[in-house]
Amino acid sequence: MTKPRVLILIASGTNRDRDAAVAIEMAGGAAEVVHINQLRSRERRLDDYQMLLLPGGFSYGDDLGAGRILATDLLYSLGGRIRAGEVTRQLGDDVGRFAESGKPVMGICNGFQALVKAGFLPGPTGQQRATLATNASNHFECRWVYLKVDHESSCLFTKGIESLLYCPVAHGEGRLVPESDSVLLSLQQGRQLPVTYVDERGQPKGYPANPNGSVANIAGVCNKAGNIFGLMPHPEDHIFLQQHPRWSRGETGGCSLPVFANAVRYAARSF
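^ that's the sequence the OP posted. Answer follows.
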């Protein structure tokens, strides 16, 4: 059977693309790392792939804010022409159509920041209704965290995952802040918060279990359809048992490979 093709989108400063590619390949997909300039030039076409993944790192050095320039790239073709005073949205239209087709789109850490700031999450597309602000601790956080899955969420990436996920975070701007209380309520009622920070017993807790001070312990967000998913932790860094930080002491559990397996399985349906 032909494997679904997964485009792993990078820009200058991205540094978690190979980790993401290994996770996709372990899950049964065919990963290809593509620079955003290759999409602009039409050397690669987004429509030729069945899944889009924006990995972590520091795209464009996080100038102007984490993921901000990449978010602009997602919306506008920087090589576009000025028409009637507006920049053509060729690349943004491609990404929008891809997402609206129901194909899986995933953003991890910096990729999540870009999806939020481009308005693809939490949706509707084109409206920025949240941001990812500086950590409440006011410094870079690098630690392992537990994530609890909302089994009633429509998120296709977390379907059927019963146990807690355990994976690292590494970010300085991960505090998710909705635009308003009404937006937060809408996300909660719409089950668009598929993963939240908890302690090892699955109970919501503050810092350090919640490493950045996100409102309502939000670790990740999906759109209403469940095919666009972004999160601050790095599930691609716990797909092997040996990656557990206490594996040498005999501890296991919380492997995140099922997140990618769900996505690849769903992507295969779009052939």
